[in-house]
Specification:
By secondary structure, this protein is an alpha+beta fold. The chain has one domain: Collagenase (Catalytic Domain) (3-Layer(aba) Sandwich). The chain has five helices and three strands. It is globular. The chain starts with 10 loop residues before the first helix and ends in a 35-residue tail after the last helix. InterPro entries: MetalPrtase_cat_dom_sf_prd (IPR023091), YbeY (IPR002036), YbeY_CS (IPR020549).
Length: 186
């Protein structure tokens, strides 16, 4: 945890719950999966965004899948992660920014815990190969997100109409993506 402000949110417990819910919602055993989360600030995530996406600006969450798992066709299910020699599912890495998350939660009139939970669920689904580059993929991913969040007692984050959101997550296996195309901002 690079930014100590995350401690006030009990991020470790929140992240474990969000990741477990995302994995369970995707039909995977959370006990077998491994992922890391860097809890940082806008300055750090801007450096990561610049290094991996050529966008030197802060964002809410980034994800780096351990392997390419994307679907073979738009709207199709991604490939399931393969266990390593010890039976573990290595998913990848995530980074989340305190500054951007708190600002967005305030702007969207959401609880910070609910917003961060949503972002971690979203990033975990990216680690599993889900994406939202085109409408069919977005419908699949967002539908799963909404079901997972509902299982945690969190309202549909996409329910309110407004400007089309965008996400700054790199597409699975596409860490050098620079076109910025996406369907939603979360």
């Amino acid at each position: 945890m690079e930014d100590p402000r995350w401690e006030a949110l009990d991020l470790e417990e929140l992240a474990e719950r969000a990741v477990a819910a995302a994995l369970g919602g995707a039909g995977l055993d959370p006990a077998m999966a491994e992922a890391t989360l860097l809890a940082c600030d806008d300055a750090r995530i801007a450096v990561l965004n610049a290094d991996f996406r050529d966008k030197p600006t802060p964002t809410n969450v980034l994800s780096w899948p351990a392997a390419e798992r994307g679907a073979d066709r738009p709207g199709g299910a991604p490939q399931a992660p393969e266990p390593d020699a010890f039976g573990a599912l290595e998913l990848g890495d995530m980074a989340i920014s305190w500054d951007t998350c708190t600002r967005e939660a305030t702007e969207q009139d959401k609880s910070l815990r609910d917003h961060v939970t949503h972002l971690i669920v979203h990033a975990t689904l990216h680690l599993l190969g889900y994406d939202h580059i085109d409408a069919a993929d977005a419908a699949l991913m967002e539908g799963l997100e909404v079901r997972i969040l509902a299982s945690l007692g969190i309202a549909d984050p996409y329910a309110e109409a407004g400007p089309a959101p965008r996400s700054d997550d790199p597409a699975p296996g596409d860490l050098e993506r620079t076109d910025g195309q996406s369907q939603r901002r979360i």
